[in-house]
Amino acid sequence: MKKRTMSLLSVAILNFAYGQKDSTSQKNIEEVVITGQYSPQSINKSIYKVEVIDEVQIKNMAATNVADVLNQSLNILITSDRNSGNSTASIMGLTGEYTKILIDNIPVVGDIGLGNNIDLTKLNVNNVERIEIVRGSMGVDYGSNAVAGVINIITKKNSHKKVTLNASLQEETVGKEYDLYKKGEGRHIQTLNLGYNINENWHVGANINHNDFQGFKGTQEGYKYIGQDGKRGYLWQPKDILNVDGIVRYNKNKTSIFYKFGYLNEKLNYYNPVVSELYLGGGNRTYLSVDRDYLTTRYLHQLNVQTNLGVINYTGDFSYQTQDRKYRDYNYDVPNRQRMSVDDYRSYNKADVIYSRGVFSNFLNNDKIDFQIGYELDHTSGYAGFIAGAFDGNNVERRIFNYANFITAEWKINNVFSLRPGYRLALSDKFNSQHNYSVTARAKITDFDNIRLVVGTANRFPNFDQLYTYFVDANHNLQGNQNLIPESGYTGSLNFEKRIRNSAGWDFKVGASGTYLYVKDRIEQVNVTIQPLVVSYFNVDKYRSMLFEGNFGVRKGAFGLAANASYYGISKTLTNGSIVSPDDFFYTFEGNLNANYTLPKINTVFSLFYKYTGKIQMFNLDAIDVSNSVYKVGERNDYSMMNFTIMQPFFNNHFELSLGIKNLFDVSSVRDTTLTGGAHVGAASSLDLFYGRSYFARVNYNF
């Protein structure tokens, strides 16, 4: 019903808007970035190396969410949980807890944190202008948890047209599974974007995205199956996501005010593979399963302000976000398709966050030297239901207030060299004061050649489980540690970029970089005693990573190609009681290639995306029994991914038809022995990555 309603609404608005006319013409605007900048800056002049994925690339990928987009980037591994439906990003081998996820410079609230370990499938790309990625510790600019890097999702805030309308329908198979109807198969996506320029100062807009993923059965038999062999349900659980937001923007002279209201509704259905038989008497019987629904709602109020206070530039970001993930259990009568004994929804994880960040710059009104001072604060009320972790059967409610001041200075020594040192003091009512430092240097050899040196630090705070876990019975004793201290990350990187244009129209870009990342006081589970077995969390481990990367790009007319390669090594020192792992480096190769070509006259666009992820090795603990453990080398096999898309515009680019194949090599899982087992639970032998090859078709209307 929801899909039909969305489709009818799209058609109705199309008919209305078709008669409208543009009031302004499209202008070419030089690509700018904002992440880590004093003000919007040309990417070539950025003090940091920023990877930009623009809206054209996103459209050519036919990506359905941010996870799909980032899956094409080097040194970013998207880790998916097929039961929870969540997908998080790991950068340089560090999990999603070490990466800060922002939307318009504001951290995104998630199930267990602010800005980190965010489920990227909840973030749609319906109204995204570009995604900016900066690797390395950025604690001075973005505070806690920005250890491995920052991913900043920049949304569209205005339009050059009087009336803007975009509507699309995308149908996609999930592996070989597809059925259009309700309780069917496949993925069904509808989007609608509306914008209206009231006058030269005021713009309003609304965006709707509905992503209906019907799950992936694979080796399972679906929710109707009554067999008692563990094959009921899905390998990847069904998930339905609705994103709605409305925006208002005011822009006059040097003042810009942007407000956004956002709403997310996610429904995930878990179908239990265990089926039990229920006798009804008189020779009658039925079959029951205890299933679960998860319902996540998120509300966002966001305000971004840019203005001048005399000669001083001011940028302010404010937000209030609340996310509540609830669950309910029920008995499902499988043969009769009926829900019985349905529980009320109860909170699984909940977070309420008030956030503000303000930056003042241009105090000296000088082209040679400038400095900025800023503040950042957040007040988070967190809740974890007893079922969300091992909390001794209790719900956990905690509040934390963080406040920070930071200062940086940018000195343009001459026409070639510029330098920016920075410092942040972070205060918290839970942890001791944290100090972060950074030094960034840029050498502009020519207008298109740059060398950058970046040194920075950042911290990661302990999560709920590490602080408050309490799981004690006759066979287990696992307890959190409220005396943990934040982890500390340190990064140093050097990169070079060069651009070459010749008289024949070829435009070349080449680059090379090296990055070193060190994390100390890493939090890990440690066996406190062996007999009896007592386990807790301590700051005992360290982590090192070295990354070497090369970049090449070329463009001429309708042809474009980008090829990148990286070779990175990871060393982890792991401690378990008296056993300490070796600290050898294990190296991995990754490469990707993106190519596109537009046929003259008919403007057909061909796009190819390829990524190779090499073999990964690491030490993991092989617990032979409770008192006998040893560290061994585990391996995760290599794999390749390829997507291919064809897009054809019609009727003066008002309509577009896209067809394509995702995961051309039909990858679903890879052998993985890097996962740690234990005395009671064995390690998994494979890592689930995707659900195999899929096909899609998309129709897009642009007014």
Helices and strands, with pairings:
Layout: H1 2-17, E1 32-33, E2 41-42, E3 51-54, H2 55-61, H3 66-70, E4 76-80, E5 87-91, E6 99-103, E7 106-107, E8 128-135, H4 139-142, E9 149-155, E10 163-172, E11 187-197, E12 202-213, E13 239-252, E14 255-270, E15 276-281, E16 284-309, E17 312-333, E18 338-340, E19 346-361, E20 369-384, E21 396-412, E22 417-428, E23 434-446, E24 449-460, H5 464-468, E25 470-472, E26 477-479, E27 487-501, E28 507-529, E29 534-556, E30 559-573, E31 575-576, E32 579-580, E33 586-598, E34 605-613, E35 616-625, E36 628-636, E37 639-650, E38 655-662, E39 669-671, E40 686-688, E41 694-702
Parallel strand pairs: 6-9, 26-29
Antiparallel strand pairs: 1-2, 3-8, 4-5, 6-7, 8-9, 10-11, 10-41, 11-12, 12-13, 13-14, 14-16, 15-16, 16-17, 17-18, 17-19, 19-20, 20-21, 21-22, 22-23, 23-24, 24-27, 25-26, 27-28, 28-29, 29-30, 30-33, 31-32, 33-34, 34-37, 35-36, 37-38, 38-41, 39-40
